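Incident log, support desk, overnight shift.

02:14 A customer reports that sequence design results differ from what the structure should imply. Their input is reproduced verbatim below. On-call engineer (initials T.W.) acknowledged and began investigating.
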């Protein structure tokens, strides 16, 4: 990515993929298989008495050994990359795909009660229908969308299938993975094939909403209208989902409303995703909007992270290609007796010279690889603090990392330098704490302080969606002889990844404290102080007055005659 780009890619909608370069079977397998067959046929059909035929045989053996080394190199890189993806991204991918399932399921028509209500209405009207006609009349489209959607509901209504969108009509559509299968996967039992499919869904798919009421649009138009490509579209989708799930004239979504769209276990897990969902057992419109926006941000950041990781793995693969190619060439020269032991000794001495010149560069590259694939302290979109400066990860490369400061200034750090610095990652932190300090005059009555402490505690405990209960309100310190410092220590129900939301919640708490102070008639006043004067020294006005006060008036030049 070019650093001259004016906008952050974390703010831009993800681009739709136009090509696929991954192959199910690596070419190295085909090369080894073909080379083995050629060598066997050559040795079986042709004699090796001729010198030229011996050279050809050696060349074939060199090619076969090179293909085997190339295959081992490819397998090693792919296995290490797969293990890295599983350990670093599997949990985030699983959560993101479940969020996608929730959004698409809740935006579609209900699954479990519409059919029974329609049948009951027709039966109450006195109309009788044959059994086979009822099945046709009340059959609901279980797909929930057009062929371009990423979710397909199974005919039994109990499972949903997640797959990547098929942008190439000539390519066979991937069968995807069911949501029930996704629930059963973990880091221990997920295969490399399934992990590859999950990564494809994240990288090449997007959050979408399902609307079966749109009629007369093509598949391409339907995909463009239902895909969530920005935070504004995420807010609009949240509003539609809330209106689709909540009962008429209801301000909240309850567990019974969710169970019209999904199973009970899925509904309970969905309820736990929202602010105050577990404590209040309901979902407000604001909570729905915040959750959909956060799901969109998480999906976009995860897609960018997987893209950057794939680019880094490809660059690492190219570096290994160069090393393996050099090994194959040296092996070929030795096997063909082109270079002798003396020449090999001379080449080794030259390698020492090259290592002396480029040793520091190789060391930095190795440290960058260790930092990126072994330590891996952050991903794209994580808020980090380095040297006291808070920044958001914008782009990760194999040698450098690009950060965005609070004013969107881009800062590029070499990875080998980041290896030596402590990195504070807010995204990976658990629910974090916060605190404010309040100052009172020492003459404030103790009864008022007790009431203030109780009201602050009551306010925090009533905001269950924002704070954990039982905050600490303690007398922290005294300032001189006229001021008391009272500290309020409390814990958010989130970390500080969304720093704006943290300051909004903290501001609401401070506003409530100010309101309590005014109601308790506690304001900033300069209290009178007693000043005791024991003695007053006698002043000599001749010494303290200006000299001009005691001097005679100047002569004005006029003569005064006294009669």
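02:41 Re-run completed on a clean worker. Output:
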């Amino acid at each position: 990515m070019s650093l001259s780009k004016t906008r952050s890619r974390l703010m831009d909608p993800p681009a739709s993929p136009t090509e696929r370069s991954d192959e199910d079977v690596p070419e190295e397998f085909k090369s080894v298989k073909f080379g083995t067959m050629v060598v066997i046929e050559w040795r079986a059909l042709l004699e090796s008495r001729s010198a030229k035929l011996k050279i050809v045989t050696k060349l074939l053996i060199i090619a076969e050994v090179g293909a085997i080394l190339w295959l081992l190199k490819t397998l090693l890189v792919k296995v290490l990359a797969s293990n890295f993806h599983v350990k670093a991204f599997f949990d985030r991918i699983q959560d993101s795909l479940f969020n996608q399932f929730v959004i698409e399921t809740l935006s579609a028509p209900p699954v479990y009660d519409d059919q029974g209500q329609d049948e009951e209405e027709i039966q109450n009207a006195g109309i009788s229908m044959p059994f086979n006609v009822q099945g046709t009349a009340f059959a609901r489209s279980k797909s929930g969308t057009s062929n371009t959607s990423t979710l397909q509901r199974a005919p039994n209504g109990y499972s949903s299938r997640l797959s990547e969108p098929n942008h190439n009509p000539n390519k066979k559509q991937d069968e995807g993975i069911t949501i029930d299968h996704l629930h059963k996967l973990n880091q221990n039992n997920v295969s490399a094939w399934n992990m590859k499919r999950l990564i494809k869904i994240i990288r090449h798919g997007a959050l979408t909403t399902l609307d079966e009421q749109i009629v007369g649009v093509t598949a391409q138009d339907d995909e463009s209208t239902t895909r969530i490509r920005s935070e504004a579209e995420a807010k609009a989708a949240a509003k539609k989902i809330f209106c689709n799930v909540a009962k008429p004239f209801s301000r909240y979504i309850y567990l019974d409303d969710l169970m019209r769209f999904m199973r009970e276990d899925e509904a309970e897990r969905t309820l736990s995703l929202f602010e105050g969902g577990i404590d209040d057992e309901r979902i407000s419109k604001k909570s729905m909007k915040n959750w959909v926006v956060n799901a969109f941000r998480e999906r976009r950041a995860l897609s960018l992270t997987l893209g950057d990781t794939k680019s880094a793995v490809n660059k690492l693969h190219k570096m290994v290609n160069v090393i393996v190619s050099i090994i194959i060439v040296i092996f070929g020269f030795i096997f063909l007796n082109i270079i002798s032991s003396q020449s090999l000794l001379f080449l080794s001495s030259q390698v020492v010279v090259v290592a002396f010149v480029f040793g520091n560069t190789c060391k930095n590259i190795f440290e960058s690889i260790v930092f990126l694939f072994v330590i891996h302290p952050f991903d794209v979109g994580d808020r980090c603090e380095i040297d006291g400066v808070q920044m958001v990860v914008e782009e990760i490369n194999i040698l450098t990392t690009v950060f965005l400061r609070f004013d969107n200034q881009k800062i590029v750090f070499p990875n080998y330098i980041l290896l030596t610095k402590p990195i504070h990652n807010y995204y990976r932190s658990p629910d974090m704490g916060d605190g404010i300090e309040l100052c009172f005059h020492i003459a404030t009555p103790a009864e008022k302080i007790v009431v203030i402490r109780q009201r602050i505690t009551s306010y925090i405990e009533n905001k269950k969606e924002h704070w954990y209960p039982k905050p600490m309100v303690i007398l922290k310190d005294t300032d001189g002889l006229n001021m008391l410092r009272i500290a309020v220590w409390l814990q958010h129900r989130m970390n500080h990844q969304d720093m704006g939301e943290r300051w909004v919640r903290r501001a609401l708490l401070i506003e409530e404290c100010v309101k309590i102070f005014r109601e308790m008639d506690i304001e900033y006043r300069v209290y009178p102080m007693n000043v005791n004067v024991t003695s007053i020294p006698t002043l000599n006005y001749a010494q303290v007055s200006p000299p001009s006060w005691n001097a005679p008036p100047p002569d004005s030049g006029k003569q005064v005659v006294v009669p």
